[in-house]
């Protein structure tokens, strides 16, 4: 525990001591004690809770357990974020919830009601959805879960069996993975018992409206019927649509789960972006909680009470100011260690170097991670490229990913990597930010790179009037910069978690989209797409179109006609065939990196490519 938490506990205890009454004198009555028995305690009330995340007075963070990317953001709980792939998030109630009584074997009836949103950014493949679950207490995210099982089961398994991950869940599925298992096509809600492959019952529901929905889930301990009802509450007018319902009869809950369970929400996304949000949540059970939350009551009177009312806020402000100053100083000292000593520029230095980020200094083809500007540092005597990335984050401590990536980028040395010169973070600081160092703040990240003066490959392939000759097309597109001799340097290396990924789906292995896992064969696939883009016409470089020409033995018809035939046809054919080979849907049919390089450098016979096992229309588009 760090010093900030110790100081915080100290002044809270002191505040409590000031506000307590003087200890009352105890009076003894021997006669009454001998003749009067205290009344029996009242029975504990049925277990229940109700949270409205737009009102911080209705919940306490200690009442909730957050795992993975799940966190409170403003008026919602975000289980995932829409700026990162392969995320897993889980929120559950922080205490054990009674499912059945060990002493009486009574099974609880329960009802839960929650408002939620499933939001997918425009022009991005949709994520996998989310699930409400009951599982063993305490809640834990299993190792390496995948999107297809909503983060409920370890790995990419579909069935938890009799292991510790067994569960009862209602899934809200937004990803069509019928190509992997026999499941209902399209969006649906379903009831799962320790398996997401064989739902007990499902009902179709269109989640594409991106509006708020209200779900109600009930379980009756007599009939053992679990019923889930969902209705859109946004946009306006959607309430008139009839609700969608799914129900199923469960087995004996005592054989499925322990007597005390965790209840909550779980989600996981593969190589997709999706924002799963909980706006409010209530839960009611017919059984009493085995661990009731007790609340103390006291009165404020006399001199101690007056001091607590007047003096405590002043004392609180003083201690909080000291804590804020200490936190700020500690964070500043720690930055150099986190970033490996890479130079931290001041914002004013970057503004002066870029003429206040003028449009004349803006670089074209800056890449998918942000705007780029050309700058010149007089004291260093060198030109630089400054990349500007805007984002939302929490406090300094939660930016650890960014600092770690700066350290990774700076330590990676290679002749074909653009050198990282330094970095800068601009925040909109004021006194309120200084005092509330835990609140969310908008800030802008600047990464300062060496200046590579010949733009990038995509510009030369598709945007400039001058045609890039065949002899210089031995390099990659998009985020690959070119010097005057057309040597390639990779930019934006290491920015996988720091910024949004835009325009990358074309180069992403379809196998990664399904499993969320990246392998060496995934890089081979991306290399194949790049080869097709370098060699072929802009509107003819998809796998499907090139493959059809390959079958017709007319590959030269897809070659970039702007080259006007000024190339070696054998080399062109070799490059295109290698591109098709690398893009094979079956990863076992793709070449290794070494095989691909040997194929390019040799003049051996061309391979006979097998017919793809899956539809090629979805590859490389």
TrEMBL record:
List all membrane-crossing ranges. none
Q: Name one GO cellular component term.
A: plasma membrane
Residues in Protein kinase domain copies? 358-600
Taxonomic superkingdom: Eukaryota
The answer to whether keyword Cell inner membrane applies is no
Q: Where in the cell is it found?
A: Cell membrane; Membrane
Describe the family membership recorded for this protein in Swiss-Prot or TrEMBL: In the C-terminal section; belongs to the protein kinase superfamily. Ser/Thr protein kinase family.
What this protein is called in its record is non-specific serine/threonine protein kinase
Species annotation = Oryza sativa
Gene behind this protein: OSIGBa0140L04.3
């Amino acid at each position: 525990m760090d010093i900030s938490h110790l100081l915080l506990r100290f002044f809270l205890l002191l505040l409590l001591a000031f506000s307590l009454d003087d200890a009352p004198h105890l009076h003894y009555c021997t006669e009454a004690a001998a003749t009067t028995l205290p009344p029996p305690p009242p029975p504990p009330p049925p277990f229940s809770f109700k949270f409205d995340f737009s009102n911080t007075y209705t919940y306490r963070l200690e009442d909730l357990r957050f795992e993975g990317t799940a966190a409170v953001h403003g008026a919602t709980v975000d289980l995932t974020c829409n700026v990162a792939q392969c995320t897993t998030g889980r929120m559950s109630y922080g205490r054990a919830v009674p499912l059945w009584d060990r002493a009486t074997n009574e099974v609880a009836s329960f009802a839960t009601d929650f408002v939620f949103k499933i939001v997918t950014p425009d022009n991005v493949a949709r994520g996998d959805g989310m699930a409400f679950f009951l599982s063993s207490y305490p809640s834990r995210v299993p190792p390496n879960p995948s999107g297809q099982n909503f983060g409920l089961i370890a790995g990419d398994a579909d069935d938890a069996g009799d292991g510790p991950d067994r569960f009862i869940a209602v899934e809200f599925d937004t990803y069509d993975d019928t190509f992997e298992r026999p499941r209902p096509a399209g969006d649906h809600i379903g009831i799962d018992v320790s398996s997401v492959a064989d739902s007990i019952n499902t009902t179709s529901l269109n989640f594409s409206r991106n509006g708020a929905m209200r779900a109600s889930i009930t379980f009756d301990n007599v009939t053992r019927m679990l019923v889930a009802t969902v209705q859109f509450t946004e946009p306006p007018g959607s309430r008139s649509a009839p609700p969608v319902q799914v129900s199923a009869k469960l087995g004996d809950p005592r054989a499925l789960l322990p007597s005390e369970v965790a209840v909550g929400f779980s989600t996981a996304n593969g190589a997709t972006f999706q924002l799963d949000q909980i706006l409010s949540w209530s839960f009611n059970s017919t059984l009493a909680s085995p661990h009731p939350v007790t609340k103390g009551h006291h009165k404020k009177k006399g001199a101690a009470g007056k001091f607590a009312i007047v003096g405590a806020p002043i004392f609180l402000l003083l201690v909080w100011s000291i804590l804020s100053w200490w936190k700020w100083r500690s964070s500043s000292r720690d930055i150099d260690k986190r970033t490996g000593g890479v130079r931290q520029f001041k914002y004013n230095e970057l503004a002066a170097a870029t003429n206040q980020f003028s449009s004349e200094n803006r670089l074209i083809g800056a890449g998918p991670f942000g705007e780029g500007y050309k700058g010149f540092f007089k004291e260093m005597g060198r030109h630089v490229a400054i990349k500007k990335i805007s984002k939302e984050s929490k406090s300094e401590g939660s930016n650890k990913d960014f600092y770690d990536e700066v350290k990774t980028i700076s330590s990676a040395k290679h002749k074909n990597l653009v050198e990282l010169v330094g970095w800068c973070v601009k925040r909109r600081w004021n006194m309120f930010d200084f005092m509330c160092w835990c609140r969310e703040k908008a800030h802008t990240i600047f990464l300062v790179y060496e200046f590579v003066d010949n733009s990038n490959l995509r510009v030369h392939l598709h945007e400039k009037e001058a045609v890039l000759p065949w002899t210089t097309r031995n390099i990659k597109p998009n985020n690959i910069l070119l010097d005057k001799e057309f040597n390639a340097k990779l930019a934006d290396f290491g920015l996988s978690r720091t910024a949004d990924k835009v325009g990358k789906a074309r180069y992403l292995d379809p196998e990664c989209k399904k499993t969320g896992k990246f392998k060496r064969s995934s890089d081979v696939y991306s290399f194949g797409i790049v080869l097709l883009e370098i060699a072929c016409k802009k509107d003819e470089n998809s796998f499907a179109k090139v493959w059809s020409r390959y079958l017709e033995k007319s590959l030269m018809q897809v070659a970039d006609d702007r080259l006007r035939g000024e190339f070696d046809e054998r080399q062109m054919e070799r490059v295109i065939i290698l591109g098709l080979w690398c893009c094979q849907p079956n990863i076992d049919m793709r070449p290794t990196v070494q095989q691909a390089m040997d194929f390019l450098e040799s003049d051996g016979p061309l391979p006979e490519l097998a017919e793809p096992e899956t539809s090629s229309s979805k590859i490389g588009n």
